[in-house]
């Protein structure tokens, strides 16, 4: 075995018997023994147990729950979006279909910009945190109540030409754009950020299985539950009341991330981009 430098006993210069070229005492690597105090070992054990769930870091649990809520919010809102366009914004079938597919297309184009921002500027965590706030603002804009002129026995023509209703349409488009930026921007970052929470020698395959299970579970549940809730009152008008509920679900992961970011002990692991 080769001699290694041990930093416990510093020395100014090496001697002839021990050919070490640093200013520290050299010992043989086979004789090195790591002695950790009992209290320090207890603290490390307590920290490991408090920061791990089922053998995985606590941050993994938060990422999985966050992704489930985000997918539930997105697909639940998208399930009633065409009805929302037709019966609240008073668009015809062609216009509602065109705007719906444009919204979906933008949602799948923005991941390119999210990946560029994460790799070259903000990093994964700040990108996810910032765009989650944008996502939340978009859900809040979509949760605004419909203006008064479109309720009651008001003619459709008068309702559409009303200035307040025109502003409401514009706000809805802004909300959809913010949602598209938020949901698309965080899409390429979350799975990569989850992989960063593991050490190099830890198994990641099970995490990605659970991660994609949470995505599909959130999508399936929201797609099934939202039409059921809409049909409980037997009318389409209750679809608008679902959006604030979905918005409330989507804000919970943002609150958890904000609290963790402001805490003294950062549970997240950040890796430099190579």
From TrEMBL:
It is a multi-pass membrane protein. Its main location: membrane. Belongs to the major facilitator superfamily. Proton-dependent oligopeptide transporter (POT/PTR) (TC 2.A.17) family. Pfam families: PTR2. It comes from the Eukaryota. Keywords: Membrane, Peptide transport, Protein transport, Symport, Transmembrane, Transmembrane helix, Transport. GO terms for cellular component: membrane. GO terms for biological process: oligopeptide transport. Gene3D superfamilies: MFS general substrate transporter like domains. It comes from Erpetoichthys calabaricus (Rope fish). InterPro entries: MFS_trans_sf (IPR036259), POT_fam (IPR000109), PTR2_symporter_CS (IPR018456). It is found in: Membrane. This is Solute carrier family 15 member 1. GO terms for molecular function: symporter activity. The chain crosses the membrane at residues 47-66, 72-89, 98-118, 124-144, 164-186, 206-225.
């Amino acid at each position: 075995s080769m001699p290694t430098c041990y930093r416990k006993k510093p020395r100014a210069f090496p001697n002839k018997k021990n050919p070490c070229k640093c200013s520290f005492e050299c010992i043989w690597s086979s004789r090195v023994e790591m002695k950790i105090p009992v209290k320090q070992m207890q603290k490390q054990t307590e920290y490991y147990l408090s920061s791990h769930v089922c053998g995985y870091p606590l941050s993994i649990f938060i990422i999985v729950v966050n992704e489930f809520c985000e997918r539930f919010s997105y697909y639940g809102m998208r399930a009633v979006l065409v009805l929302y366009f037709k019966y609240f914004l008073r668009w015809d079938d062609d216009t509602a279909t065109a705007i719906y597919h444009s919204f979906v297309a933008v949602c799948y184009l923005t991941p390119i910009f999210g990946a560029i921002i994460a790799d070259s500027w903000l990093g994964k965590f700040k990108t996810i945190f910032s765009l989650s706030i944008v996502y939340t603002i978009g859900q809040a804009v979509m949760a605004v109540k419909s203006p008064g002129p479109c309720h009651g026995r008001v003619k459709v023509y008068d309702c559409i030409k009303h200035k307040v209703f025109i502003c409401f349409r514009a706000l809805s488009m802004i909300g959809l754009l913010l949602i598209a930026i938020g949901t698309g921007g965080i899409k390429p970052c979350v799975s990569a950020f989850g992989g960063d929470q593991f050490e190099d020698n830890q198994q990641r395959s099970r995490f990605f299985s659970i991660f994609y299970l949470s995505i599909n579970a959130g999508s399936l549940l929201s797609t099934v539950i939202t039409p059921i809730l809409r049909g409980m009152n037997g009318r389409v008008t209750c679809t608008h009341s679902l959006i604030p509920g979905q918005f409330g679900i989507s804000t919970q992961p943002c609150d958890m991330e904000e609290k963790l970011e402001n805490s003294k002990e950062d549970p997240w692991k950040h890796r430099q981009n190579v």
